[in-house]
Amino acid sequence: RKEVEQDPGPFNVPEGATVAFNCTYSNSASQSFFWYRQDCRKEPKLLMSVYSSGNEDGRFTAQLNRASQYISLLIRDSKLSDSATYLCVVNLWNQGGKLIFGQGTELSVKP
Amino acid sequence: DADVTQTPRNRITKTGKRIMLECSQTKGHDRMYWYRQDPGLGLRLIYYSFDVKDINKGEISDGYSVSRQAQAKFSLSLESAIPNQTALYFCATSATANYGYTFGSGTRLTVV
Q1: Residue A44 contacts B, CB cutoff 8 Å
Q2: Position A29 pLDDT exceeds 70
Q3: Does B103 touch chain A (CB under 8 A)?
């Protein structure tokens, strides 16, 4: 079983749609969680951290359920510029803080 | 200038050649990492270093070696390149164990 698993893609949605990405992780020692965004053939960039109480940044909302080892990202009012691959990432504090990346879910927002 | 700089950006090399990928950072971070990315496999950790005297193997270190020449520099070597090492390679840095990473722009390596 992969340590971090994400919804298979791609997600093709119209502008203005709401889209949700799901992610599960297997290592209960995971302590920090992130969503990264990666544009085609470019480096991943931190989109947002994920906190236990849930957190929001504009149109983006992240949720964490530690009991279920589940993370989600909700994007409201999708824009063309949101088209990218979204990576779910967990931080293993008991292994010196290594980040483990999911395979990513590709999002394509169409006019 | 970028916080994390990788050189070269693109490289084509022949099977059996030795090649070095270089990474330098201006963020003052102690922790540095090398990942490779392949389609469908995501990012996989090759080596990581928590300070100049600390080098650790990641999940796919076979066929690779690294050198941490200074806090700011971490290089990855392929001693004898093979075609299945064709991939996109990323260097990353972080400040502490619970922070996210800052990535370099990547090196696209093709082994023919």
Answers
A1: yes
A2: yes
A3: yes
Assign residue A77 a region (left: φ > 0; alpha: ψ between -120 and 50; beta: otherwise): left
Q: pLDDT tens for residues A46-82? A: 999 998 888 999 999 999 999 999 999 999 999 999 9
Q: Give A85 or B96, the one with higher predicted confidence.
A: A85
Measuring CA to CA, which residue among A40, A43, A37 is closest to residue A57? A37
B87–chain A nearest CA distance, Å: 11
- Name chain B contacts of A32, Cβ cutoff 8 Å: 98-100
Q: How far apart are CA B34 and CA B9, in angstroms?
A: 15
Mean pLDDT across A3-26: 93
| CB-CB contact of B51 with B30 (8 Å) | yes
The 3-state DSSP class for residue A80 equals helix
Distance of CA B45 to the CA centre of its chain: 9
Q: Which of A49, A97, A104 sits opposite B96 (nearest CB)?
A: A97
